[in-house]
Amino acid sequence: MCRWLAYSGTPVLLEQLIYRPQHSLIDQSLHSRLGVETTNGDGFGVGWYADSETGPSVFRDVGPAWNNRNLRELSRNLRSRMFFAHIRASTGTAVQETNCHPFRHGRWLWMHNGAVVDFHRFRRELVLRIDPSLFNAVEGTTDSEVLFFLALTLGLEEDPPGAVERMVGLVETIGRANGVENPVQMTVATGDGEMLWGFRYSSEHRSRSLFYSTDVDTLRALYPDNPVLAMVSEETRLIVSEPLGDLPGAWNEVPESSYGIVGPGRDELCPFRPQAAPRAA
């Protein structure tokens, strides 16, 4: 499986998110505590938004994150209000740049931890449900990218939670028709540069780990002398596969079958309920 983090809030250097914390994403690439694999070295990627006028940029590589000199150099100088960062442990597809997360389409970024169980058994049926206008934008061979383009097909840009619920409903319907009873295992982050959504769900209701950071006002009350908390706004939030440190009260587990919304003036935690699969055109 994989590890990831998504950040929204006061513009910060990438280095502060993926290198400096006690149990940073770089540390997790070698010493994951909660992942299926301890080591996540099958490529990595970061995505970020430079300003409100342009879409996101991405930097991805097939090597491990822990010794990538370009990532280290970039992280010291790259500042953004929204970051996606992902370290990959392949579930069977090739280690190649087009299979590294995050995936991008227009203003949207997407990254995933988990798997579509026995993806090879019904991959063709899923791919054929991607809207023809989006089909040629699929570059890699992962289940994760197929999930993204199915969500786009089903309305991600207009209704992100509803689109992901419809996407999961579709995958479960097709998977079960092919003899896979519990096909979906996922934690997903997606965003458009303004809002960020994080999802935790699995068909068997035993999802991979996912956490969100406690609100900044509460943390300031708990740790008034912490210099990092003095630098960021009240709306700053992180969603992570596993906590970046052991600070008591700083991290909260996302409940099973839930999704969160993070953005200016909005912070919500809602139940996630897959919707019936739409009929094929």
Automatic annotation (TrEMBL):
SUPFAM superfamilies: N-terminal nucleophile aminohydrolases (Ntn hydrolases). Pfam families: GATase_4. InterPro entries: EgtC-like, Gamma-glu_amide_hydrolase, GATase_2_dom, Ntn_hydrolases_N. It comes from the Bacteria. It comes from Wenjunlia tyrosinilytica. The keyword Ribonucleoprotein does not apply. PANTHER family: GLUTAMINE AMIDOTRANSFERASE DUG3-RELATED. Keywords: Glutamine amidotransferase. This is Class II glutamine amidotransferase. Residues 2-265 form the Glutamine amidotransferase type-2 domain. The keyword Acyltransferase does not apply.
